[in-house]
Amino acid sequence: MLLVAFCLPYKGDIGGYEVKGYLLTDQDTTHTFKIDTGYNAQQMMATIKERGLTLIGVGLTHEHANHAGGLDTILAEWPVFVCLGSGNAGEQAHNPFR
Q: Is it the case that residue 84 has pLDDT exceeding 90?
């Protein structure tokens, strides 16, 4: 199976420091996987809705606010699986399907 995907970056700001997050989207299914929050859950959620995408999961490289800030807002809208980076081996992944 060939995955034809595109990556949408979005930006946030934390104390004047620009941070980014990404939506990796399958063009055929419109399923999208979010990589980091970019500390801007509202912009990311608006992009998903405007483009008619379906969020299927979130990947966090680590738990710092500039990568995970706003995750609670996202999960309130879309209770999806959350994967954590290997540096967070002691943390539990969020799985709403348990």
A: no
